[in-house]
Amino acid sequence: MSIVAIVGRPNVGKSTLFNRLIQRREAIVDSVSGVTRDRHYGKTDWNGKEFSIIDTGGYVKGSDDVFEEQIDKQVELAIDEADAIIFMVDVEAGVTGMDEDVANLLRRQNKPVFLVVNKVDNAMREENAVEFYSLGLGDYYTIAGISGSGTGDLLDALVEVL
Ligand code: GDP
Ligand code: MG
């Protein structure tokens, strides 16, 4: 079964989307210690195609360097094990240094990457999302994970590459 990983810095809304996608389905909590501790695995399907989804997280706040290192590690794991990657950013916060760091890692590999601008709750935020072109990953999907708005178009495109 194909695997999709959701990566991005803390607080962008990864778990909110993950929970929406696996609604009423079983989430398998990985028991491996360390950075992988809070990787949550779930199953979902769209347009008749079933796939596994990984919610990455488990960041421990320390110095900025430690934080950055943990995010990089999650991205490296995702690049290794996933067939497609959802890279989530947050329009409320705008482009951050951590987003740029993740984008740099993702640009150096060949897995399909879906840049997803989350928290697009209104038309003004839709306009603000253009700043994410600066990440150099091309076009993006705008969603509001909290309401599910925009997620249909994202999933349509996602299952095409699985
Ligand atoms: P994670 O750290 O990336 O897993 O982020 P979470 O899923 O835990 O969400 C972080 C915060 O963003 C929570 O307070 C969510 O309720 C909020 N959030 C998630 N999606 C949206 C959205 O579409 N719109 C808004 N306004 N807030 C959201
Ligand atoms: Mg989370």
Automatic annotation (TrEMBL):
Q: Where does GTP 1 bind?
A: 8-15, 55-59, 118-121
EngA-type G domain sequence ranges: 2-162
> Hey, which family's this protein in?
Belongs to the TRAFAC class TrmE-Era-EngA-EngB-Septin-like GTPase superfamily. EngA (Der) GTPase family.
Q: Subunit structure, per the record?
A: Associates with the 50S ribosomal subunit.
According to its UniProt entry, what is the function of this protein? GTPase that plays an essential role in the late steps of ribosome biogenesis.
Descriptive protein name: GTPase Der
Which lineage ranks, top first, belong to the organism behind this chain?
Bacteria, Pseudomonadati, Bacteroidota, Flavobacteriia, Flavobacteriales
**Interval of the full protein contained in this chain:** 1 to 162 of 433
